[in-house]
């Protein structure tokens, strides 16, 4: 195993109530929120071990320099044909078209990861990025509960899942026609709000392979940690938790972790902060402009952005990638009194929190949206990729904390001319609609701060932080609810793999055809159909030989329905026993044909 350890002290882990392993995906946008989480965990007396790669180690070590968190470096795979040597983060990829092979290649790190887990002090649970799907197998192997971290909003997760499961994306509509969602009738989307891989009724290729692996891994994990706060998207948090086995817990906004801690003393302010200080002295409002580290913007579009900013006459701070240098002849000289161009990584939260910044022209990556909301800065939405179009809809249409740029052809992915950009920049910074969304975002900023208050906030509801998180693996989900296959690793890896595929297969299927009839089990059929599972009829019994655990019995008892029938031998209690709510529990041998005439009968909904 090729690994490097820093501050790994078994005694320090043993002395803490909890020891948590964190494994962020190799991208700053995915890494930073989990490092904020590490800070919060550490400040609450929890031992933290962070996994990363050699090239990503310096950034993480610097971020965690004021903690005793342990860092374990794993060797990133060499000789991946499509990936340039030395690239260990998506931020360094020459093109995002290389993301699928990069993400799939991370699987080769699993042997080193497993070896490292073996030597660690007891890990109470693991939080790993959803893109690192293979960590679910490692967690199962070592009996470690795994929670998934996805850097997405609950809104975009629910909307995407609803659109896919209801087959909204395969209809005759054009790519830019509005489609009303069945589950959320007030929300309208277009096919262009989704990546092409989701629009193919018969998807294939490395991108789909990667997505399928993450779905399978999610189905055997304990739940999700969401970098959000309940008050921001309560409708979608509640919807997800009602309709999905894997629940989500809001633990954010994690970007406020730094503001809740004692800030590091800065020896010298960077030039852009000094520039913002000067604008504040002048009483001049500033528009912050940034499109993330991965968006690929054409030279033609960059030039129109530059002209639009210049013609808007507003003050702006624009962060661009080093390779994005074609901004037009003499542009930087012409705008030097009211515009500054930055070509390096910046602390975005520090910029947004600066009192001179009053607007943000953003790609609507979820981290950026959260940071802008927490800073009370309204957004001019210009989505570029991934789930950003859905985030933009949330910003503009759902919570109304921003406006949207206008493309020349009306398409979500259309070109934005400089005249349209100038118009919307001025509206955000000086117009009536800008004032309205500015007032809205400031209200959410106050709620966000309260959500992170220790002992009071919705995201951290107890002063004992370890108890707050332990609910995700203790109170809410009991390991006894799972069969032996999921409780112990064993050596039956082929069976585990089979079960993973069996769980995931229905998610990509149209529905079920079951040997039954509706009049026999109307309650069960209606229940399944309400859950988004297209099913005709179903009757499942756990048979004569299995021995359900008490946790499994409890889970069955929680199933909604007017009538519930089980088939279970128990010598101490034979015969039929009526219980409330029109449910029947049969604790004796059941003639599945002869007893079919039980009035209003409903079958057990899941095999045990």
Automatic annotation (TrEMBL):
InterPro entries per record: UDP_glucos_trans, UDP_glycos_trans_CS
Alphabetical list of Gene3D superfamilies matching this protein: Glycogen Phosphorylase B
Top EC class for this record: transferase
UniProt keyword annotations, A-Z: Glycosyltransferase, Transferase
Pathway named in the protein's UniProt entry: Pigment biosynthesis; anthocyanin biosynthesis
Catalytic activity: an anthocyanidin + UDP-alpha-D-glucose + H(+) = an anthocyanidin 3-O-beta-D-glucoside + UDP
Sample GO molecular function, one term: anthocyanidin 3-O-glucosyltransferase activity
UniProt EC number: 2.4.1.115
Keyword Transferase found: yes
GO terms (BP aspect): anthocyanin-containing compound biosynthetic process
Family: Belongs to the UDP-glycosyltransferase family.
Protein name (Swiss-Prot/TrEMBL): anthocyanidin 3-O-glucosyltransferase
Species, as recorded: Ricinus communis
């Amino acid at each position: 195993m090729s690994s490097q350890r820093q501050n790994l002290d078994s005694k320090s882990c043993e002395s803490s109530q909890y020891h948590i392993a964190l494994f962020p995906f190799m991208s700053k946008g995915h890494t930073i929120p989990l490092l904020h989480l590490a800070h919060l965990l550490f400040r609450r007396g929890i031992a933290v071990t962070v996994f990363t790669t050699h090239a990503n180690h310096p950034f993480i070590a610097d971020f965690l320099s004021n903690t005793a968190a342990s860092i374990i470096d794993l060797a990133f795979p060499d000789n991946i044909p499509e990936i340039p040597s030395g690239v260990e983060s998506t931020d360094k990829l020459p093109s995002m078209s290389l993301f699928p092979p990069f993400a799939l290649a991370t699987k080769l790190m699993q042997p080193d990861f497993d070896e490292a887990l073996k030597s660690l002090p007891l890990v109470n649970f693991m939080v790993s990025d959803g893109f690192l799907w293979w960590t679910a197998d490692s967690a199962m192997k070592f009996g470690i509960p795994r929670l998934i971290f996805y850097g997405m909003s609950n809104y975009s997760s629910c909307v995407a899942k609803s659109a896919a499961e209801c087959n909204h994306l395969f209809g005759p509509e054009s790519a830019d026609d509005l489609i009303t969602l069945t589950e959320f009738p007030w929300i309208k989307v277009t096919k262009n709000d989704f990546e092409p891989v989701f629009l193919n009724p018969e998807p294939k290729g490395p991108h789909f392979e990667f997505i399928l692996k993450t779905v399978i891994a999610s189905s055997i994990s304990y739940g999700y940690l969401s970098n959000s706060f309940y008050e921001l998207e309560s409708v979608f948090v509640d919807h997800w938790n009602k309709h999905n086995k894997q629940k989500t817990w809001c633990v954010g906004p994690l970007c406020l972790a730094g503001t809740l801690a004692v800030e590091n003393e800065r020896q010298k302010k960077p030039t852009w902060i000094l520039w913002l200080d000067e604008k504040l002295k002048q009483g001049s409002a500033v528009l912050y402009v940034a499109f993330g580290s991965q968006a690929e913007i054409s030279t033609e579009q960059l030039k129109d952005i530059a002209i639009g900013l210049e013609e808007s006459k507003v003050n702006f701070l624009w962060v661009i990638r080093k390779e994005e240098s074609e901004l037009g002849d003499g542009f930087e000289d012409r705008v030097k009194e009211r515009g500054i161009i930055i070509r390096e990584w910046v602390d975005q939260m520090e910029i947004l929190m600066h009192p001179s910044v009053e607007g943000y022209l953003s790609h609507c990556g979820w981290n950026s949206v959260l940071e802008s909301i927490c800073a009370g800065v309204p957004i001019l939405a210009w989505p570029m990729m991934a789930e950003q179009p859905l985030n933009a809809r949330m910003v503009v249409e759902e919570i109304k904390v921003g406006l949207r740029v206008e493309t020349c052809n009306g398409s979500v992915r259309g070109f934005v001319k400089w005249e349209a950009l100038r118009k919307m920049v001025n509206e955000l910074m000086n117009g009536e609609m800008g004032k309205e969304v500015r007032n809205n975002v400031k209200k959410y900023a106050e709620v966000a701060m309260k959500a992170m208050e220790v002992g009071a906030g919705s995201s951290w509801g107890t002063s004992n932080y370890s108890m707050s998180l332990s609910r995700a693996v203790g109170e809410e989900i009991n390991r006894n609810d799972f069969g032996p296959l999921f409780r112990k690793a064993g050596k039956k890896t082929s069976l585990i793999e089979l079960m993973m595929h069996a769980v995931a297969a229905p998610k990509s299927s149209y529905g079920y055809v079951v040997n039954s009839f509706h009049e026999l089990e109307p309650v069960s059929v209606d229940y399944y159909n309400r859950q988004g599972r297209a099913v005709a009829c179903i009757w499942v019994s756990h048979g004569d030989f299995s021995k359900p655990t008490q946790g499994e019995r409890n889970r069955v008892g929680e199933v909604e329905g007017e009538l519930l029938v089980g088939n279970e031998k128990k010598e101490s209690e034979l015969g039929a026993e009526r219980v409330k709510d029109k449910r029947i529990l049969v604790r004796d041998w059941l003639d599945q044909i002869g007893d079919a005439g039980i009035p209003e009968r409903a079958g057990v909904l899941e095999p045990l």
